User: Which sequence fits this backbone?
């Protein structure tokens, strides 16, 4: 029991640092949306989608491989130093090649006039990839507080630098230019625009690397070629899974500029509108992320138990995940007239993305919930099959739907592609799970809550919307949320079983 309590405590700390960090970074989106036009913000969203993929590739599953081998090897420090030297070498090689071929790389990703942005973000992602190994070492040594502290410092520093470069510096340029001209003017000043976002990012990333120096010093580096070969053999399926998964998540932003080569400005505008509006739906993403941090320790701890109680616990976890997911969906959609001010009016045409993407993320969360069958039965290769299959379906749907809808609404094709793909992955995972690890999920009860949520959404959206008296709209919708909660309590109270 003590071990489970310690695991839960560490999970909470890791989860809190991730969720808080994601939330704080989320708070930067309104700043970008109000300062920059959709086409400019589209460059930011577009580039970050590529760096997400690059980070997975540059890590090539070594973070998980380190955990796997360090926990079993007689010399964990040999595993650690081998991982550091491997990822450090590939990250340094990536920076060198990017520097030498920055022109062709920038042209290949359709940003030939923004080489400085590409280079800064490339260096940032390479340093991040290397830093992930000492962060994994902190987790291995159960130094959860230090791990979380550095993660939060990174986020706070990034936010502070964004505010400084984007708000404070333009003001100082007017009232006291001599205080900042030594660095601000040579870079282009306020005209450098979104470039300051990437400057803030690279500085905060380098500061994190400095904070990790104690984890990089004080031991003898040992490179074990045979060990590295074993780690790579173990990690390559994780690389395939990770690349397929992250490309699926970012496919809309990555693909749109390639589908409209004759109208790059219109394509970047669509990417900006799409990227900003899916940030409103990130509430569902954060809920799913928090659930993921707690769920895997939960299922593996329960798997050691005997009897049918553990299976009932898995089914209850699924049911309550869906219950809270529907609640979040209703809450966001009911108060979207307020939440839309999260972005400027220039981005409001893309608000129709929000319900589709929230439904997609809910399906993704259910698919993750269902994934316990291949984790508990050691059929993890199914995770790779499902991720690759989801990627292929999503790519095909994007290639069809986005051009079919065209400019300016093509981003809706990406949203629908995400929903359809995640739904199919959820269904396939469920069907396979029925064969390999059948569980008595309460699908009837879950369907009832789904129908209830859909009915309440339609009622709140159409029958109880008072354009001239928004206070009455919000009051009515709040009552509908209470109705949903009341029905759930009525069915889920212990005496109802």
Assistant:
């Amino acid at each position: 029991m003590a071990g489970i309590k310690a695991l839960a405590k560490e999970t909470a700390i890791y989860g809190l640092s991730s969720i808080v960090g994601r939330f704080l970074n989320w708070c930067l989106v309104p700043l970008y949306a109000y300062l920059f036009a959709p086409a400019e913000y589209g460059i930011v969203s577009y580039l970050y989608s590529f760096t997400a993929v690059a980070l997975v590739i540059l890590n090539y599953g070594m973070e998980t491989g380190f955990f796997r081998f360090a926990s079993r090897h007689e010399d964990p420090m040999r595993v650690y130093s081998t991982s550091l030297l491997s990822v450090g070498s590939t990250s340094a090689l990536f920076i060198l090649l990017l520097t030498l071929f920055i022109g062709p790389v920038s042209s290949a990703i359709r940003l030939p006039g923004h080489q400085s942005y590409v280079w800064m973000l490339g260096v940032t992602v390479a340093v991040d990839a290397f830093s992930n190994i000492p962060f994994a070492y902190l987790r291995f040594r159960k130094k959860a507080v230090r791990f979380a502290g550095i993660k939060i410092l990174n986020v706070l520093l990034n936010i502070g630098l964004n505010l400084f470069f984007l708000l404070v510096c333009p003001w100082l340029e007017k009232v006291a230019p001599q205080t900042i001209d030594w660095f601000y003017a040579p870079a282009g000043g306020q005209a450098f625009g979104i470039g300051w976002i990437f400057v803030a990012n690279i500085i905060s990333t380098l500061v994190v690397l400095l904070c990790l120096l104690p984890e990089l010093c004080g031991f003898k580096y040992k490179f074990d070629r045979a060990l590295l070969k074993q780690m790579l053999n173990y990690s390559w399926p994780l690389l395939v899974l990770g690349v397929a998964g992250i490309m699926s998540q970012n496919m809309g932003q990555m693909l749109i500029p390639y589908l409209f080569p004759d109208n790059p400005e219109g394509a970047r505008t669509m990417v900006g509108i799409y990227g900003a509006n899916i940030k409103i739906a990130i509430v569902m993403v954060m809920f799913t992320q928090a659930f993921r941090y707690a769920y895997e320790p939960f299922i593996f701890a329960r798997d050691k138990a005997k009897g049918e109680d553990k299976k009932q616990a898995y089914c209850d976890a699924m049911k309550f995940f869906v219950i809270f997911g529907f609640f979040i969906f209703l809450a966001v959609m009911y108060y979207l007239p307020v939440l839309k001010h999260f972005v400027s009016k220039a981005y409001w045409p893309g608000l129709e993305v929000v319900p589709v993407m929230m439904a997609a993320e809910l399906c993704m969360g259910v698919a993750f919930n269902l994934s316990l069958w291949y984790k508990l039965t050691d059929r993890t290769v199914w995770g790779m099959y499902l991720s690759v299959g989801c990627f292929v379906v999503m790519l095909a749907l994007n290639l069809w739907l986005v051009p079919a809808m065209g400019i300016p609404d093509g981003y809706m094709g990406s949203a629908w592609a995400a929903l359809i793909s995640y739904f199919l992955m959820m269904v396939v995972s469920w069907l396979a799970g029925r064969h390999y690890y059948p569980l008595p999920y309460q699908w009837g009860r879950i369907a009832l809550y789904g129908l209830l949520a859909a009915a309440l959404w339609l009622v709140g959206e159409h029958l109880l919307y008072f354009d001239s008296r928004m206070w009455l709209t919000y009051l009515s919708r709040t009552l509908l949320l209470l109705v949903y909660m009341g029905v759930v309590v009525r069915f889920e109270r212990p005496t109802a079983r």
Remarks:
- The mean pLDDT is 85.
- Residues 257 and 449 are 39 Å apart (CA to CA).
- The chain has 21 helices and no strands.
